[in-house]
Specification:
The chain is an all-alpha fold and 166 residues long. The chain has a domain of 116 residues: Flagellar protein FliS (Four Helix Bundle (Hemerythrin (Met), subunit A)), CATH 1.20.120.340. 66% of the residues lie in helices and 2% in strands. The chain has five helices and two strands. It has a two-stranded antiparallel ribbon with strand order 1-2. A hairpin with a 5-residue loop joins strand 1 and strand 2.
């Protein structure tokens, strides 16, 4: 079986955040295929789909970095271990309900991950956006601010003063 070149390019150019989303979506996709196979009593397809979903969940678990947030990683590892166990149950019992449960939890995780990705983009945009100058906070003198009749400086022919600082 040859690899899909579009998918290969998509994976190679994806950010780590996008890769994690793709893994979650893949686990959902293969879990749905397993449910369909169970409904059709196609045990071979069920097995293949469940094993693919299990492998993805293991990859999600292996991709956790406890050095960044040990508490969160511990909770996610527990979730992934639970999901993996539920898929084992579904495979052994040939029942769809454990797979449906996994799909619901993975869909919730996908939505949570999408929200986190949007927040990350907003944070990155805020950090990279040039700061809008605040004229009131600008300590540098405005060279045109002292032009006017009441400004100290040279006197013109009409008796007013001219001043240009700079």
């Amino acid at each position: 079986m040859s690899a899909n070149p579009y998918l290969k390019t998509k994976i190679e150019t994806a950010s780590p955040e996008q890769l994690r989303l793709m893994l979650i979506e893949g686990a959902i996709k293969f879990s749905r295929q397993a449910v369909d196979a169970i409904g059709n009593a196609d045990w071979e397809k069920m097995y293949e789909a469940i094993v693919r979903a299990q492998k993805i969940i293991l990859e999600l678990n292996n991709g956790l970095n406890p050095q960044v947030d040990p508490d969160l990683c511990g909770k996610l590892a527990a979730l992934y271990n639970y999901l993996h166990g539920r898929l084992v149950d579904a495979n052994m019992q040939r029942e769809a309900e454990p797979v449906h449960e996994c799909i619901r939890r993975l869909e919730f995780e996908r939505e949570t991950w999408l929200m986190a990705m949007r927040q990350l983009v907003q944070d990155r945009d805020a950090q990279s956006a040039p700061a809008t100058p605040d004229p009131a906070a600008d300590p540098s003198p405005n060279p045109l601010a002292s032009i006017g009749p009441d400004s100290p400086g040279d006197t013109d022919d009409s008796g007013g003063t001219l001043s240009v600082q700079g």
